[in-house]
Amino acid sequence: MNKDVSPRFISNLTRNTLALIMAGGRGTRLKQLTQWRAKPAVPFGGKFRIIDFPLSNCINSGIRKIGVLTQYKSHSLNLHIQKGWSNLRGDFGEFVELLPAQQRIESGWYAGTADSIYQNLDIIRAHSPDYVLILAGDHIYKMDYGTMLAKHVENNADVTVGCIGMPIESASAFGVMGLKDDLRITQFDEKPKNPQSRPDNPDEALCSMGIYIFNTDLLFELLIRDADTKTSSHDFGKDIIPYAISKYSVFAYPFTESKSGIQAYWRDVGTIDAFWEANLELIGVTPELNLYDNVWPIWT
């Protein structure tokens, strides 16, 4: 990103952005941990819940309009957000709002990630954001969404997808993308059996983080089209992103440390082993994930 981009410019972008966190998944691979609660409500690192990480990233990035989409066994998650995230200034238009599946449009519940956003188009329309930031509610990381928004605007992109390098042997669990030199996405395969490796590193694949920025008008167009497509699975990775790549300007945003430029900390804790390992990493002398960082705190 251009180093001359001012904080005021980024602040203007984040102020006109609505973040939607998808937090309704069952998390079946976590077995007993999600028997009575949604995956984003699972405790992590002692006092935190998994959803505290994307929520804290939003607050620290200056995004104060946040919707949390819930569905599966959401009582624990609802209580956590009501008790721990109710301190925003509503008189300034700030909020963390719970958006449970309510059959607003048809008789069905959320039928996929894209459908969950589609069923809340009236909510998005009411807030009239310039940009919609769509996040997964079940990953552990720290990220400044403001710099991603600035890059989205700088590229004159229609859609921007956050991405990170993953070992080729584990990449089949993610959306895998191919890029041009200017980071325009040319190919996107959701959970491929034989993932495409990076041209500069055959041991890695470039994978989606489940983080998307959409220009709002285009998001409406894509979701309405997808809802009318009977053969669609109504999923961002399987349907929305591949179609958008074929018609619009879709760019990747590599997730790196802003100062060093090296790949940043990001963990998908969707399995018991991954969850266990991520928690054990925290007891190291200098863990990669600093939970006591005053510059970028994790709130709960």
Low-confidence stretches: none
Head-to-tail CA distance between termini = 31 Å
Major sheet strand order: 5-4-1-6-11-8-12
Q: State the CATH topology.
A: Spore Coat Polysaccharide Biosynthesis Protein SpsA, Chain A
Helix content: 25-40%
The shape is globular
Class from helix and strand fractions: alpha/beta
InterPro entries: ADP-Glc_PPase, ADP_Glu_pyroP_CS, NTP_transferase_dom, Nucleotide-diphossugar_trans
GO molecular function: ATP binding; glucose-1-phosphate adenylyltransferase activity
Protein name: Glucose-1-phosphate adenylyltransferase
Enzyme class: transferase
3D structure, described in words:
The strands form four sheets. The chain has a seven-stranded mixed β-sheet. A two-stranded antiparallel sheet has the order 2-3. Strands 7-13 form a two-stranded antiparallel sheet. Strand 9 and strand 10 (about 185-190) form a beta hairpin. The protein has helices spanning about 5-15, 50-60, 75-85, 115-120, 120-125, 145-155, 215-225, 235-245, 270-280; strands at about 15-20, 45, 50, 65-70, 95-100, 130-135, 140, 160-165, 175-180, 185-190, 205-215, 250-255, 265-270. Helix content is about 30%, strand content about 25%. It has one domain (about 5-280): Spore Coat Polysaccharide Biosynthesis Protein SpsA, Chain A, CATH 3.90.550. The protein has about 300 residues and is α/β, with parallel strands linked by helices. The chain is globular. The model has no long low-confidence stretch (mean pLDDT about 90). It is built from nine helices and 13 strands.
